[in-house]
């Protein structure tokens, strides 16, 4: 029986799992959303992936975790930052990628890759939920539109309106005021997506624009977000199949490296780089995710 490796992206709102066999083939992937940094979300994603693969935890020889809740997983042999894992996963999905834009539930990040696919520079948002999936979720609720429908509704607008608030809470108040003025929902939604595009372009400016550009994360499934961001950057964004699981795929690929007996020296070098990334990510200016307050590890039983 073949050995398998497991990559888990324990995100702020969604858990993603990828299982690879020892030859590097993807045998299963699963996405589960059960609330903010949800233990049950991870367990559901693991159960779904194991069911797809037709195996159980005993067939997995290496586990790497990433994402906000990466340190909460007691089955993980190693934790790696989402910056490194998204870069690795995006490059695997699109080998020519030179820039990765990931808009997730809690943050947005832009990662510049060198010619070898390694992280050259990165930037992350540092203002609450502005420009993230949470921002979209809050404002979809404000205009009474289903989250999955807001992208298509936004593209029906023939004009946009400026959403100037940087904070999701203040933006919600701004949207309610626009509704009270009689502005059409579609126009407001177009403004919401244009606002996200504008903030993301600011992040791109901090690392430099490099084509081809790959977009990953759950917001990559939103056609209006892709449209307005591509327009703002004056380029075509590549949305690969499996964009939402890029981080989990990257984690699984690092687990596969370990399985293939990468030297301890190389792992030590990787860990040294990760240590520096962890320090850069530990920015007190950024909002603390819910998992930062949670100390109980998540246990998965096969």
From TrEMBL:
Q: Which parts of the sequence belong to the ATPase BadF/BadG/BcrA/BcrD type domain?
A: 6-255
Q: Which Pfam families match?
A: BcrAD_BadFG (PF01869)
The domain of life is Bacteria
Keywords (A to Z) from UniProt: Iron, Iron-sulfur, Metal-binding
Cofactor(s) annotated in UniProt:
[4Fe-4S] cluster
This chain's protein is named 2-hydroxyglutaryl-CoA dehydratase
Biological classification of the source: Bacteria, Pseudomonadati, Pseudomonadota, Betaproteobacteria, Rhodocyclales
Q: Which InterPro entries match?
A: ATPase_BadF (IPR002731), ATPase_NBD (IPR043129), CoA_E_activase_dom (IPR008275), Dehydratase_Activator_Redct (IPR051805)
